[in-house]
Design a protein that fits this description.
Blueprint (H helix, E strand, L loop, with lengths): L34 H22 L4 H20 L4 H21 L2 H17 L3 H18 L20 H16 L5 H20 L6 H14 L6 H15 L9 H8 L2
Helix pairs in contact: 1-2, 2-3, 2-4, 3-4, 4-5, 5-8, 6-7, 6-9, 7-8, 8-9, 9-10
Length: 266
């Protein structure tokens, strides 16, 4: 029996999860391999996904698990077939769906497993830039997971999309700038940071994202990438958090009232 190690030198391969852990896989020349087992498992998982989709309206953790299982099955078969590109592509589609649901329901552990799997797929397909982006998401997720559960943002639903008139856009940006100035940042720097934070929030509202800790840290990362000399990652995160109660006066961000009160006390 030939042994194939799924090629990876990335951090994702170090995460021990049922999804990302490929140890010993058989090649097609292994006598006891039965292709019908793969076909039957695939059919069963497809039926499970169809049933759960009908019941869950697309946001059930069980559905995310079924998508992840299908992705894992396809990846394992792809490796058996010598890293079959078509199967890897199909697997990535299912894993992306699992990722979306895990993000929506706040299942950070499952999200990390799925991201790790997708990183391995990107590496196997030679998609270096995409793999680096996924690795950044994994590192960001590790930062968020380090936040104690009791301190994480609590929400009821994703943001409700709203088109904000230009006058209100300007007013909200000024209010965010004033909040930033309270942290001891100069008026000029506050204006620039306020524009960045407003842009991140408005884009999130337009896309009806979940305003969770992942959103905050991702927005802060974008700010630091353009203003590395002006602000640290830690300070950028704090300013985005402080700006959410201000933004909530103009948008329904889906955050619980308790969370908004806690943010106002920062």
């Amino acid at each position: 029996m030939k042994v194939i190690q799924f090629p990876s030198t990335s951090r994702a391969s170090e995460i021990a999860t049922p999804v990302a852990d490929y140890e010993v896989l058989q090649t097609p020349d292994t006598p006891n391999r039965n292709a019908r087992d793969f076909d039957s498992e695939r059919a069963l998982l497809a039926q499970r996904i169809e049933n759960l989709s009908a019941l869950a309206n697309g946001t059930n953790p069980l559905l995310a698990g079924a998508y992840a299982q299908m992705g894992q099955l396809l990846v394992q078969e792809a490796v058996v077939r010598g890293l079959d590109g078509k199967l890897l592509g199909e697997a990535d589609v299912y894993l992306e769906k699992a990722q979306q649901i895990s993000q929506e329901v706040g299942d950070l552990k499952s999200l990390e497993a799925v991201l790790s799997e997708r990183s391995l797929i990107a590496e196997a397909r030679g998609e270096t830039e995409r793999q680096e982006h996924i690795e950044e998401e994994i590192n960001l997720l590790a930062t968020v997971r380090a936040i104690p559960s009791k301190d994480r943002l609590q929400y009821d639903f994703p943001a409700e999309s709203r088109i904000l008139p230009r006058g209100e856009q300007s007013l909200l940006t000024k209010e965010i700038a004033a909040t930033i100035q309270e942290s001891g940042i100069s008026e000029i720097e506050s204006r620039g940071l306020a524009k960045d934070i407003f842009t991140a929030v408005y884009r999130g509202v337009s896309q009806e994202v979940w305003f969770d800790d992942m959103f905050v840290h991702r927005a802060a990362r974008e700010i630091v990438s353009t203003r590395a000399d002006a602000i640290s990652s830690k300070d950028a995160v704090a300013l985005v958090y402080k700006s959410l109660p201000v933004a909530s006066q103009y948008f329904d961000l889906g955050l619980k009232e308790k969370t908004l009160r806690q943010l106002e006390e920062l």
